[in-house]
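Ticket 4471: requesting a sanity check on a complex prediction with flavin mononucleotide. Repro inputs:
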Amino acid sequence: MKVWILQGSPRANGNTAWMAEEFKKAAEAAGHEVILVNAARKKIAGCLACEYCHTKGNGACIQKDDMQELYPLMAEAEVLVLAAPIYYFTLCAQIQAPIQRMYCVNAPAKVKKMALLASSYSPDVYDGAKAEFRDICNYWNVESIGVVTANINEQKTEETKQKIHNIVEKL
Ligand SMILES: Cc1cc2nc3c(=O)[nH]c(=O)nc-3n(C[C@H](O)[C@H](O)[C@H](O)COP(=O)(O)O)c2cc1C
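Returned C-alpha cells:
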C-alpha cells in the first residue's frame, strides 16, 4: 500500500521522529511504499476560510505555500499516519495545519486506513488527540488501524517499537 507518514515534531532526533522512522522501516520491510514528510520543516499556514476552494478555486487552495507539495501526496496515499508530539493536550500545530488545509478537498481521495503515533512528557494527556483522531477517521470514513502513545517513560523502547509493528501488520 502507499503509506504517507506526516511527522509533526520540529525535533529531528526526538521521540516522534523515532516513532515515525520505526513505522517507516517496518512498513517498508513488509513491502509497502512509504513517504515520510516532516511537516515541521514546511511552511503551512492555517486555513483562511475564504471559501475560494469551494467557489472559483474549484477544489484548489488560494494559499500557495508548502501545502502545495503535500496535496499530490495526500491524493495518492492509501494509508495516512499522523505522528505528533502532544502540545497543550492535543496534536501539535504542525499536524493540525495540514489536516485543516484539507478543507479544499474535504477528504483525502484514496485513504482507507489511518494510524496515530503520539508522544508526550506526561501520561494521561492523550484524550484530546485521540478524540480528534477518532472523529477525523469517522468523518473521512476511514478505518483506524491503531494509536500508539509514548510518554517520557515509554520513549524509544522495545515495547513501543512492538506496538508500532503491531499496527504495521494491519496495513
Ligand atoms: C509547546 C509544547 C507543549 C507541550 N505540551 C505538553 C503537554 O500538554 N503534555 C505533555 O505531557 N507534554 C507536553 N509537551 C512535551 C512534549 O509533548 C514531549 O516532550 C514530546 O515527547 C516531544 O516529542 P518530540 O521528542 O518528538 O519532540 C509539550 C512540549 C512543547 C514544546
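Notes from triage: Residues 9, 11, 14-17, 85-89, 119-122, 125 surround flavin mononucleotide (CB under 6 Å). Leaving this open until the requester confirms.
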